[in-house]
Design goal:
Strand content: under 5%
Distance between the termini: 44 Å
Number of strands: 0
Largest sheet: none
Length: 410
């Protein structure tokens, strides 16, 4: 193997190790806390982490869908585009602090954690945008190293305090540690890329027209993303509202585990293949790369599906909670739905590359409507199992709608 090929292989392997380790750390912390906390406390923890996850998408206005694609396809004024995007985000953060403070303070189980929640929501989004930008510039190893430091850092610290120092760790302690590691990672990123930023300082400019153009395109993605997050997370809030915090904790536990499939596929396939697929969209190589993308999606979705099904039983035995064991069948329902939605990323990516944003929006709006109605109805009559069936119905619908859309003439 040539030295350059060896370096590339080592780079990819290292990136994969750090990304998978970060994913593993997330899996470990929510699995361990499901045993450590009582069901109701774990339910509150799950609702907090869900809210933080949703906030990442709310804060960004999905502007990255426009900005990353534009930066990859049009190389000029890159520094000014990046500066404009982050200037926009800072303005959004200021508005979020005002609205978020009022919202969190007036929500019973969020009220005492308002400061931490605001800090984590903002820094999670900021770090996420830095990560996406690094991937776009093909700094995959640096992006995944920083991700590892951030995620594995705070989760490891929590587990060390519990397991080795035998500390009684509260939700407030966990959120505080999480916030400190997020801020620290931003400072570390500034230190690593500081020289490159300073070298581009003279090229920085706020491109108002570019921002306005991007927002008009991104608003379609934004509404679509919010609708998609409704599909992925609204069931937890509905379960909590109808059945209580303990039931929300049980459902969230299985939902989090099934989402490992999506995180794995995003790490192994999407983060590496999609930028290249976008760049090849105007060349003769596009069809070949699209087939490769499909093959990898099916292969790795299948691998993750099998691993999750095999792993769930020993996890439940270790957890030793009859209330969780009773609903083991949820993982089958959720896994099938997640598998289908992952495979349908082939059709989603094709529509995205072909600038069919309105069709993407139409699909997720229909899907979110189906999800809300099915989840509320089936959860009301069949409890937690009903929420799982509703998610499967939604997964089938999303897959069918995306596949059908690709076959329609442009």
């Amino acid at each position: 193997m040539q030295p350059r090929q060896q370096a590339l292989s080592l780079n990819k392997a290292s990136s994969l190790f750090f990304r998978m380790s970060a994913m593993g750390a997330k899996f470990l912390i929510f699995t361990y806390l499901s045993k450590y906390f009582i069901e109701s406390t774990y339910g509150i923890y799950s609702l907090i982490t869900t809210t933080i996850t949703v906030s990442i998408f709310v804060l960004g206005f999905d502007f990255y869908n426009f900005s990353i694609r534009d930066i990859l396809l049009k190389k000029e004024n890159t520094s000014a585009k990046v500066f404009t995007a982050f200037g926009f985000y800072l303005g959004v953060y200021l508005i979020f602090v005002l609205l978020g403070y009022f919202t969190f303070k007036n929500t019973d189980y969020f009220s005492q954690y308002t400061g931490y929640l605001l800090t984590i929501c903002i820094t999670e989004h900021f770090n996420q945008e830095l990560y996406r930008l690094s991937l776009a510039f093909k700094k995959v190893l640096a992006a995944n190293t920083l991700l590892f430091i951030r995620v594995a850092g705070w989760t490891s610290m929590v587990l060390i305090l519990i397991l080795f120092f035998k500390k009684q760790v509260s939700l407030g302690d966990i959120l505080g540690i999480w916030a400190y590691f997020n801020v620290g990672t931003i400072l570390l990123t500034a230190l690593i890329f500081g020289k490159a930023i300073l070298n581009e300082f003279s090229n920085l400019a706020f491109k108002k027209d570019w921002l306005w153009k991007g927002l008009k395109v991104s608003m379609i993605f934004y509404v679509a993303t919010i609708a998609l997050k409704v599909i992925e997370y609204s069931n937890r809030y509905i379960v909590e509202g109808l059945l209580g915090e303990a039931s929300a904790g049980i459902f969230s536990f299985y939902s989090n585990i099934s989402m490992v499939i999506g995180i794995y596929v995003s790490t192994i396939v999407v983060s590496y293949e999609l930028p290249d697929l976008i760049e090849s969209s105007t060349t003769t190589q596009f069809e070949g790369k699209l087939k490769r993308f499909k093959r990898l999606l099916v292969l790795h979705s299948g691998i993750a599906f099998a691993v999750v099904l095999i792993a769930i039983y020993p996890v439940l035995l270790w957890q030793n909670k009859p209330s969780f064991m009773e609903y083991w069948h949820l993982i089958v329902l959720l896994n099938i739905a997640t598998f289908l939605m992952n495979i349908s990323l082939l059709y989603h990516s094709y529509l995205y590359i072909k600038h069919r944003e309105k069709k993407l929006l139409e699909i997720v709006l229909i899907g979110s409507g189906i999800n809300l109605i099915a989840t509320y109805s089936l959860c009301y009559f069949f409890g937690i199992t009903g929420a799982g069936i509703a998610f499967l119905v939604t997964g089938i619908a999303i897959f069918a709608l995306r596949k059908r859309a690709v076959k329609q003439p442009i």
